[in-house]
Amino acid sequence: MPRFFNTLTGRVDDFQPLEDNLVRMYACGPTVYDYGHIGNFRTFVFVDLLRRSLRQNGFQLRHAMNITDVDDKIIRNAAKQGVSVQQYTRKYEQAFLEDSSFLNIEKPEILVRATDHIKEMAQFIKQLVASGHAYRTEDGSYYFRIATFPTYGNLSKKDFGGIIEGARVDVDEYDKDNARDFALWKAPKPGEAFWETEIGPGRPGWHIECSTMSMKYLGESFDIHLGGEDLIFPHHENEIAQSEALTGKMFARFWMHARFLLVEGEKMSKSLGNFYTLRDLILKGHKPSSLRFLLTSVPYRKQLNFTFDGLKQAAQAVERLRNFKLRLETAQFPKSGNPAITQLATATVEKMRAALGDDLNTAEALGAMFDMVREANSAADAGQLQQENIAPLLGALASFDEIFAVMADNDAEKVRQVLEWAKQEGRIQEASEETVEVAKSVELSDAKIDALIADRNAAKKARNFGRADEIRNQLASAGIILEDTKDGVRWKRR
Ligand code: AMP
Ligand code: ZN
Q1: Can you state the angle between helices 362-381 and 288-297, rounded to 10 degrees?
Q2: Cα separation values, 239 from 67, 212, 427, Å
Q3: Is 53 in the pocket of ligand 1 (CB under 6 A)?
């Protein structure tokens, strides 16, 4: 049984779903007012790791995520550009989905937009008013009355002894230390987008979105609620208050939060110039798999400090794993078995499983994998790796990759797509030479590369070394790297 740190209880608890084998989980999704940054993706990669690890433990998943496509910033920016909220947000929603797929983040079973649930949100608020938990103000806005919810503060462990009855707040993000009645619904201001509903015209507050969508798709009580640590208060505290006030039942049992990503030791911010999106990194010549590896390498509750050195090391680590796999797949090994290596592979799978079950200890799981790679490589160098060991070793790699998802050599195609996007956005001049090189290697298909290598082998055999070198250079300039080994030629894309 896996164990996870539960923000609500403040300790590591054994995890078992409420309903049989099905895990119902909700992760707060992106606010699509701009491109997501790598900090956002620390949280989304963590959610993905949790998903994959639960599935590896044999659980079924019903994972819901919202797209927040209406909030203060979106309304303001859309109005500034003179476009509808929908026109404004679709571009960033699309970019978020693409970035997620570049990072091999799986799509949740249920992915829904806030603006498709306005009617349900209005009904929710109406019921809260009827039960005395919410009230309407003169302008037609609605607020949650936190004095009616005595356990307010349980999640964030804040003491709200000094709750000021009736003090209100209507911005989505507010003062972190004061408890205030928060906006459920905002009456329209002149020139702003709004929806007509049974509680009047206006737009929802941010918190009510997540309560409405999570309960609609997962039920009144579900297993896990996730997000970055900044969401604990007020967002998740408010979600609990609204939801439990409505149903009288426990909302989510487990609350898990990813620690904020730092960049070069500081908080990421535009003014510090250390603010990066995945696309910024790709244009600088980095691969999506390097960022995914880096983000998974530090357990989600530990501080992770993003540095470009760290990103390079992550790229090297991915290379080591991929080279090891290529070696297993292409080298010739003696026939008899080496039981110690087979045992090592089995023990590695167990160690990884145990580490991930211990509050997703990815660092320990990676440690086990790299120990295996090191030992198996030295066995191979010493001629002690044998055919029977290959399947168990590849099996351990496959089990590793079910969670970490960095083995597939498909960065080049993703980089090519980002270059296409950069052209359309007028940002192509930002693309480094490295980026262009990486993208190039997709121009040759696997079959074409194999054919060129066969030509090169034939030329070498005929002692036509000029032609052989010409082919090597042709491949190199297309971003294909050849490696001559005693077992023949191996190749890979840059
Ligand atoms: P947003 O798009 O602002 O609603 O945020 C989407 C997710 O990213 C939320 O779960 C945030 O908590 C999370 N997040 C924002 N900044 C960071 C950061 N620097 N590190 C980790 N997670 C973050
Ligand atoms: Zn949320």
Answers
A1: 120
A2: 16, 9, 39
A3: no
